[in-house]
Amino acid sequence: MTTEMATDPTQAARWFHALSDATRLGIVMRLTGGERCVCELTDALDAAQSRLSFHLKVLKEAGLITDRRDGRWVHYSLNREAIEGAGQFLASIKPRRRLKVECCG
Amino acid sequence: MTTEMATDPTQAARWFHALSDATRLGIVMRLTGGERCVCELTDALDAAQSRLSFHLKVLKEAGLITDRRDGRWVHYSLNREAIEGAGQFLASIKPRRRLKVECCG
DNA sequence: TTGACATATCAACCAAAGTTGATATATCAT
DNA sequence: ATGATATATCAACTTTGGTTGATATGTCAA
Q: Which of A7, A15, A16 should one mutate to test binding to chain B, selecting the residue with the greatest count of B CBs within 10 A?
């Protein structure tokens, strides 16, 4: 069992922001298959180089992915913990039925 | 067992965008306790009325919450399906170790 | 029907995010 | 050292998002 901790909403908002763009979700989905170098992602997503670089930076700064330099190439991969953190936040948003309390009127 | 279906990334991006703001996460967290009227949310989050209304609209348009009018009050509650959809998307983003394929160099 | 209240919408504005093309940096091969 | 390649950064710009105060709508109570 992994230690679970209530997620800070500010952190969660950062994660969700990074995930709120179709291009970035495309990146993240590719990385599900394991580490990928930028060149592969550029091909797969056919995005302009600077554009892709921008989105990778957003994901990285949000802590959702990490990079590793290998000679002239840079490889990105998912950061499991962050993805799980976001997942746990959502899991904590289960609606419970309200105990009979009428607010108003 | 519920039927699971691969989530459309565009839809997922919409959900995550709606969740990418601290005020909106605050709303969603309150709604975890069940249906709430706008008046309660206004108090709890002390946000200006039009501001709160704006954020409720964003969440509603993303399908994450629903509203119900009751006389002069409007009550909002979580849309379980959407929250779970977002959760399932994240659950599908489990990193697998890459099968030995070197991309470049 | 009038007035009070709850909520939504609007317009104006400011700030943040995304795109593009150009340039910089790092590493490799020669 | 030189040139080629991979990636990052930058500046200029366009687009999208958030806030505010004012006004509109809908519903109730008197």
A: A16
* Non-local CB neighbours of A27 within 8 Å, separated by 6+ positions: A41, A45, A52, A55, A56, A59, A65, A76
Q: Write out pLDDT tens, residues A20-74.
A: 999 999 999 999 999 999 999 999 998 999 999 999 999 999 999 999 999 999 9
CB contacts < 8 A, A to B, total 125
ipTM over 0.90: yes
Structure tokens at A85: 């953190």
A19 CA: distance to closest CA in chain B (Å): 6
Residues B24 and B14: their CA atoms lie apart, in Å, by: 14
Q: For residues B13 and A19, is the Cβ–Cβ distance under 8 A? A: yes
Domains of chain A, CATH where assigned: 9-91 (1.10.10.10)
pLDDT digits (tens, 9 = 90+) for B43-52: 999 899 999 9
3-state secondary structure chain B: CCCCCCCCHHHHHHHHHHCCCHHHHHHHHHHCCCCEEHHHHHHHHCCCHHHHHHHHHHHHHCCCEEEEEECCEEEEEECHHHHHHHHHHHHCCCCCCCCCCCCCC
